[in-house]
């Protein structure tokens, strides 16, 4: 995802089901770019910080960022949509559960609004390392400007993978 963001591409449907693992060397690949955008082609004029990003209905319920659910996405923050979804994937890796697994029969729209209004946060396991929980939670912050950039997420996860945590 960091490499995509570096070249101006947003995926807009990051979820565990869109990651492929090559058995041979355990290389992870991101798939299904059907909802993605090339930022400079879609919004060539990015000077206005209040320019609304009209991206339509994208993403998957349970992985959607609050601003996407509330239809308040600004061009300057489109990459943060992928960051939020990555945080949900990190939750899945810890809990081994889909983000909507705890909700039973709650309709998708209502579930999305619960997350968007911070009425519910995904529960990490008791065995989840604090540093991992922190970066995953930071990715899922409702305040877009407080979410980390992809480069920072990669660095922290790389450091965690190479530490004794």
Automatic annotation (TrEMBL):
Domain Protein kinase, residue spans: 1-165
Signal peptide: none
Annotated InterPro entries: Kinase-like_dom_sf, Prot_kinase_dom, Ser/Thr_kinase_AS, Ser/Thr_Kinases-Pseudokinases
Species this protein is from: Thraustotheca clavata
Molecular function terms from GO: ATP binding; protein serine/threonine kinase activity
Protein name: Protein kinase domain-containing protein
Organism ancestry: Eukaryota, Sar, Stramenopiles, Oomycota, Saprolegniomycetes
Highest rank taxon of the organism: Eukaryota
């Amino acid at each position: 995802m960091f490499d995509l963001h570096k070249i101006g591409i947003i995926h807009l449907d990051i979820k565990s089901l869109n990651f492929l693992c090559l058995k041979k060397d355990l290389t992870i690949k991101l798939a299904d770019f059907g909802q993605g955008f090339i930022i400079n082609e879609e919004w060539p004029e990015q000077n206005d910080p209040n320019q609304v990003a009209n991206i339509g209905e994208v993403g998957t319920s349970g992985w959607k960022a609050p601003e996407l659910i509330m239809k308040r996405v600004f061009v300057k923050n489109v990459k943060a949509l992928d960051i939020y979804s990555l945080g949900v994937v990190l939750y899945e890796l810890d809990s081994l559960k889909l983000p909507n697994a705890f909700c039973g029969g709650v309709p998708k729209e209502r579930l999305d609004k619960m997350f968007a209004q911070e009425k519910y946060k995904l529960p990490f396991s008791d065995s989840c390392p604090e540093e991992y929980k922190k970066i995953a939670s930071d990715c899922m912050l409702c305040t877009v400007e407080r979410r980390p950039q992809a480069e920072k997420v990669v660095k922290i996860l790389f450091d965690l993978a190479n530490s004794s945590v």
